[in-house]
Design goal:
Length: 180
């Protein structure tokens, strides 16, 4: 749904080997370049998004993410991966000492959109199956989400830009609604 804003900043204009990733990349480019038709709805299937994420992260192995899986449900986005927290934190010695190395990661978020803004609410963050809360929850999520969009503040609205009015998520797709 409203996770489109998180993906927009990470778009690369390279040819995709996977046709689903190529289709998602083309749609994202259309939005990013403000070429989506006014009043249109741009739909991304979960298969397209998963293919696109895999290709983007494969092109950036230094980011420390692999074996990714994105699931969509009614208003909820779930993201799972094997994450190298040492790489994600840029070699921060404190992070390396606490959770450095590769670990399974799960983030469940509920993005809310309206009037061109999105607010990302965290529902769950787990590292190695251990649920996080408080500061650790926000820290781990920010490390991962900032890969896709630098200016994300958890539970704080921010502009989606690119003439996006709002977005919806259901089990079938993320739909991005362009302003009229």
């Amino acid at each position: 749904m409203r996770l489109a804003a998180l993906f927009l900043a990470a778009i690369l204009l390279v040819q995709a080997a996977d046709p689903l990733a190529a289709r998602a990349r083309a749609k994202l480019t259309q939005i990013k370049e403000d070429k989506a038709k006014k009043g249109s709805v741009v739909m991304f299937t979960s298969q397209e998004l998963n293919s696109w994420i895999r290709e983007e992260l494969a092109e950036e192995p230094a980011l420390g993410m692999r074996d990714t899986k994105l699931e969509l449900s009614d208003g909820i986005v779930s993201f799972e991966a094997i994450a190298d927290f040492g790489k994600l934190a840029g070699g921060n010695p404190l992070v390396n000492g606490l959770i450095g190395g590769e670990r399974p990661l799960k983030i469940v978020a509920q993005p809310d959109t309206a009037a061109g803004k999105v607010t990302v609410h965290l529902k769950q963050v787990e590292i190695s199956g251990v649920p996080l809360s408080g500061i650790l929850l926000n820290f781990a999520a920010k490390l991962v989400i900032s890969l896709f969009y630098d200016d994300v503040e958890i539970d704080q609205p921010f502009e989606m830009g690119h003439n996006i009015d709002h977005a919806t998520i259901d089990a079938a797709a993320l739909r991005v609604y362009i302003k009229r």
